[in-house]
Amino acid sequence: xxxxxxxxxxGFFGTGxxxxxxxxxxxxxxxxxxxxxxxxxxxxxxxEGLLLVAIGNQIFHSINGxxxxxxxxxxxxxxELVSNVIFSDGAAYASTTTRVVKSIxxxxxxxxxxFNEFTRLVASSAGTLYAVTPRYGVLKxxxxxxxxxxxxxxxxxxxxxxxxxxxxxxxxxxxxLGAGQPDHVFVSNDEGDSWSTMDQGLFVLGGVALAASDxxxxxxxxxxxxxxxxxxxxxxxxxAPVRLHRPREVTPTGYR
Length: 256
Hints:
The protein is mainly beta and 256 residues long. The protein has no helices and 23 strands. A 4-stranded antiparallel sheet has the order 1-2-3-4, with no helix packed on it. The chain has a 4-stranded antiparallel sheet with strand order 8-9-10-11, with no helix packed on it. Mean pLDDT is 86; it is low at 240-256.
């Protein structure tokens, strides 16, 4: 789910893209022009009126709040699946099963970056790009993706990543049952050069899905709701206990 210009956009697995203008109380479909697929995730990115949605091995873009979509974009191959898309410093980036790609024309076309291996996620913070890979752990690029170097987090089981105000957060999944390698949330405040764990009060068994705002880090847990950690401005360390959020159920409207 992403937000842009006061609206929320969410991709529902096998269903499509929905939009809310009342803080999530109601949702309407905005998928005109998108292919109808029943077995794919809809992965979204938004920036100043431009929306991107990745569906399987295709990326589409919209400049009118999802009322209509253009695409599929050029430059993607049939044998790569897109896992996520982001905006950073005027460009868009996507992670795929074979590489990290970049677009400088609003998502209409994509070209390779300097990393051409399976990438789980791509993210950005303060102009630096980060790629979560199953072979090298977390990589970073400070030149728009042309070259990549390893960070201090070289674990190969990182599946979630978030950033806020110079702080980086990552989470691993030991395995599907939470046994074997312990599940942790890792934090760095030096562009990924060094990392420490920060699991106090957080239910991490089975792994967590991370998201961050300017004021909080959120962790979606396996069976314990969404937990939040307050992030104070100009913080030098993170030691606060987490708090539990119980999200209410919302049924999308306008879908048949």
